[in-house]
Design a protein that fits this description.
The chain has 315 residues and is mainly alpha-helical. It folds into two domains: 1-152, no CATH class; 154-315, Four Helix Bundle (Hemerythrin (Met), subunit A). The chain is built from nine helices and four strands; from the N terminus they run ααβββααβααααα.
Length: 315
């Protein structure tokens, strides 16, 4: 068993994959779309590894010992190091082998290392269930989004995984951090009355319908995805984009507002305002330096007739 001090062990878990990834990048520098793919893989792993570890305590798969720098009782350094390992290092060094062989490598490492760290956490009898869930629902999509982005394949699948990434941050991680500041949690939903839960689910469903309608148009009509690093090749003016120019931002805004009202967590106003500022500053700037130049008069005509937030025909 590893006899390292828990503080030192957490530092090793964080620094080893970071340093190893840096060395791997020096040996062979990733190309543009490889960097985009690695960024997406990392952004996928961070929120969902936090969620997995929160669920692990509820399910009895494993529990961490009390220590500093924790969130929900989970050492932040461990999740960040784990995320770099699964989201950057493994996809990069295993880029020439199959996804399933890469998962087998990750499984072998975890089977070897996790029982060797009793100073960090205690494994439950069913910890392998959590392990397999993590491999299939977190590592697998991370590897897939890296490979598909690198090879410019299956645009709809790329867009769908990107939506899951966006949801992990804007519907789970950011709201949960905000609600925690008020002594609340997204998991309080399980203690609410049925009517409140139904209203919450209805609001989230409508918001998601708007978002996925926009996502589908981006992928199928525009042949691209919503993120600036993987943009559509064609100007998208059909479907929901014929009605409003910012459906994805509206979808996220509605979901955050739904969370704020359901939980009465008014600190959620901070991420809501941040989203609006992001849309009005960064997105507008990106449009001016990219979309406007690529689509020229077609973009200008579209923006003349379709507004960012208010649907056509309203007011």
């Amino acid at each position: 068993m590893l006899q390292l001090d828990p503080v030192l062990l957490k530092s090793v878990i964080l620094l080893f994959p970071v340093i190893a990834a840096g060395i791997a990048f020096i040996i062979e520098r990733p190309g543009y779309y490889q960097r985009v793919g690695l960024l997406l893989a990392l952004l996928f792993t961070i929120p969902y590894l936090f969620l997995l570890n929160i669920l692990a305590e509820f399910a009895g798969w494993w529990i961490y010992h009390d220590s500093a720098n924790t969130w929900h009782g989970i050492p932040v350094e461990v999740i960040l190091g784990w995320s770099v390992f699964w989201g950057i290092l493994l996809p990069w060094i295993c880029r020439t082998i199959s996804v399933y062989f890469t998962i087998a490598i990750a499984l072998a490492l975890d089977l070897w290392l996790m029982p060797e760290m009793p100073g960090l956490f205690v494994l439950g009898e069913s910890w392998l269930i959590g392990e397999f869930i993590g491999l299939l629902l977190i590592l697998l999509p991370s590897l897939v989004i890296f490979k598909l982005t690198t090879n410019r394949q299956q645009v709809l699948t790329r867009a769908l995984i990107q939506s899951v990434i966006w949801g992990g941050w804007t519907v789970f991680l950011i709201p949960e951090i905000a609600l925690q500041l008020e002594g609340k949690s997204l998991f309080d939903l399980f203690n609410m009355n049925a009517g409140r839960v139904m209203l919450f689910l209805a609001g989230m469903s409508v918001s998601m319908l708007i978002g996925y309608s926009a996502l589908y148009e981006f992928a199928m009509t525009g042949k691209g995805t919503p993120i600036p690093f993987d943009p559509p090749k064609r100007l998208v003016t059909s479907g929901i984009y014929s009605v409003v120019a910012n459906p994805l931002q509206i979808s996220t805004l509605l979901m955050m507002t739904c969370i704020m009202l359901t939980y009465q967590g008014y600190i959620m106003l901070l991420p809501i305002i941040s989203l609006i500022l992001y849309s009005e500053i960064f997105v507008r700037w990106h449009h001016s330096i990219d979309i406007e130049k690529r689509f020229d008069s077609a973009w200008i005509e579209y923006r003349r007739n379709v507004r960012n937030w208010i649907p056509v025909g309203v007011f």
